[in-house]
Specification:
The chain has 23 helices and 20 strands. It is an alpha+beta fold. It has three domains: 157 residues, Ubiquitin-like (UB roll); 374 residues, 2-Layer Sandwich (Creatine Kinase, Chain A, domain 2), CATH 3.30.590; 128 residues, Four Helix Bundle (Hemerythrin (Met), subunit A). Strands 10, 11, 12, 13, 14, 15, 16, 19 and 20 form a nine-stranded mixed sheet that branches. Helix 10 packs across helix 11 and helix 13 runs antiparallel to helix 15. The protein is globular and about 100 Å long. The two termini are 37 Å apart. Bound molecules: adenosine-5'-diphosphate (ADP) and magnesium ion. The site of magnesium ion has 3 residues, from loops.
Amino acid sequence: METNVIEEVFGTDVFNDDVMQKKLPKDVYKSWKKTLESGAELDSDIANVVAHAMKEWALEHGATHYTHWFEPLTGVTAEKHDSFLSPASESKPVLEFKGKELIKGEPDASSFPSGGLRATFEARGYTAWDCTSPAFLKEDAAGVTLCIPTAFCSYTGEALDKKTPLLRSMEAISKQAVRIMKLFGYDDVKKVSCSVGPEQEYFIVDHDMYMKRKDLIFSGRTLFGAPAPKGQELDDHYFGTIKERIAAYMKDLNIELWKLGILAKTQHNEVAPAQHEMAPIYTTANIATDHNQLVMETMKKVAKRHNLECLLHEKPFAGVNGSGKHNNWSIITDTGINLLDPGKKPHENTKFLLFLAAVIRAVDEHAEILRLSASNAGNDHRLGANEAPPAIISIFLGEQLEDIIEQIVRGDVSSSIQGESLDTGVHVLPVLKKDATDRNRTSPFAFTGNKFEFRMLGSSLSIAGPNFTLNAIVADVLQDFADELEKADDFDSAVKDLIKRTVTEHQKIIFNGDGYSDEWIEEAEKRGLPNIKSFVEAIPYLTTEKSIKMFERQNVFTKAELESRVEVNYENYSKTINIEAKTMIDMASKQYIPAVIQYTTSLAESINSIKAACPAADVSVQTELLTKCSSLLADAKKALVELEKVTEEAAEKPEGKEQAEFFRDVIFVKMGDLRAPIDELEMLVDEDYWPVPTYAELMFEV
Ligand code: ADP
Ligand code: MG
């Protein structure tokens, strides 16, 4: 019998538990597992045996190199490849991989952003094996490489990556949640982990067209482009039939992801033309983060094989729905209890209500840094612009939970609204049970059954930031809760009192209405909820007294680490806009303006020749077009000169806040001024003269 492709390929490129069980001597496997579960330091003898088994397995799969795979603050993963070759013999190659090479690496930290940490400390950086995320194989033109997930830190232990704070935050929330569980009598709970399922949106365009657009190549988004005659007004793409070429791509993508042990589950078309989504089944936050990085990388790699390009930018096309990422998050004990599962009668489920109250308070108290965690330059085109989701953080709970919260606040909680049956009116269809919580697509932070869905994330972002932020802020509240409840004489009444007090004080963050409406913006202001307009504006919240206190108390970041991240954020923003501005200057001066000159010249020549041939002929159409195009051309040239000037000025600004603000307030505005006349020209100029593929071609010809 033929085996199913999923069964055949799943996890074949992963050095997972199964492989370890087979490859390691029994006692080594046992002590390895013990180390993993207890979180203790790995014994060097064990590390040597594991490294040897890992090498043997990798060699069997054709690997020649290994790399410490890590996630620096650049936003993409980094790797430095070393071959297994050891200098032991001159005549015969000896392939070696020792425990210490598995555990520790020493890439040169000076080539990665450190936000000033390097200036005060040493240039040296270390990568340390994260044994909670399995090693895997990667195949490309360079051959097969064994990738070892690692954390990256400085000589003195400061985190220079995104994994380190994520791992710290997971420990923090586990520690506090275990304390709470103990109070509820669950002495068997030793560890609690956060589970994450990220839904990833992306665009696919044709590779040949992509190569003709410098803006896509350099900045990942179109910096010019008039709207296509058909946008997404018919909404016929959403869940629509998947085109053959895309279907072939998705099939290939799934196989590659399954090989890496990634549980790629759902795929469908998204709202915009050429836009799609992929969601894996949820897993531990740490692995989910590594997997999401691999998903993004694999999406791009597989696209190229199909002569396609995958765009992960938050807003590849102006005026068209952008791409985000939904971070589904829940807290689950090592005994299998989902602490965010309300059960059938949530009003009686005190444990659930306490964890719910903790999330409500955490999100209300730290909305600013949560907003920041979902932001980058690309997401500025979505958050708070005319697109989902709004920049104001609020929590959607749904009818059932909102009703319970109201009862708690009133002080007489006695019932839960139950889901009804859904009557389709067709008897051959099964009777469907309606969920007690409806969906609200306009909420940035929505309760969806047994998890929270953080919907603000930009599509290209690492999910590490949103998750270490969420874990840390919730851990911080749980710590307060545990401190208070451990001291209580009467636990039952103390916990009820705590829930009531917390939700009463923080209910302003709960909003079940339409998050896109103007009324909500006014209402949110009245409630005192922050409405942070841009990424740059959100950055300083990382180092407010409140944030520093919280992150330090949870051992997720030191003050110095936070300060360094502020710098890195400003730098990332400035660099991004700088590249965009320079690309615009390049395209306008070398492509658009010359093309329009050619077109207007041909118009002028045609007017002249018509007049010469027939002086009485009516050339008003041509003349009007020539006048209009020439005037827009002059506007474009003027805007180009302006943009060039301010881009030079920007380079002179002191790095950090001031420069980033200049990029946002001046450069970004001038970029719009240059774009406007050129987009208008695109609607007038003969398409044979237009130097780049249009929106219609990019979005509909895949
Ligand atoms: P949507 O309808 O919003 O697309 P789905 O129900 O398909 O949402 O789930 C989206 C994601 O949520 C998937 O990645 C799924 O694995 C994840 N998910 C489901 N349950 C949980 C949970 N308890 N914790 C974290 N993620 C979860
Ligand atoms: Mg979703």
